[in-house]
């Protein structure tokens, strides 16, 4: 593209809970001309308790061309990824030994 492309980035809970296991993120990503990557931070919340592995997904949607009217943009088939927050092994071993 000769211009900028923007899309929406959101997180969605699966087995992990937003604002308990991870901070919910919703923002617009802007890719300048020739850019192909972006880094997005999704803070993981350490609540100090033992948790099982938990998952959430990151979703890209609503693509648009910035500053160009009448341009249609289509997302590829790869618009989501699944993130697994892995339980702390030391806490897991202690929990398993007690139960």
Automatic annotation (TrEMBL):
GO biological process, one term: cell communication
One Gene Ontology cellular component annotation held by this UniProt entry: membrane
Residues covered by the Calx-beta domain: 7-75
Gene3D superfamilies per UniProt: 2.60.40.2030
Highest rank taxon of the organism: Eukaryota
Keywords: Calcium, Repeat, Signal
InterPro entries in UniProt: CalX-like_sf (IPR038081), Calx_beta (IPR003644)
Record carries keyword rRNA processing: no
Pfam families: Calx-beta
Protein name (database record): Calx-beta domain-containing protein
Native source species: Florenciella parvula
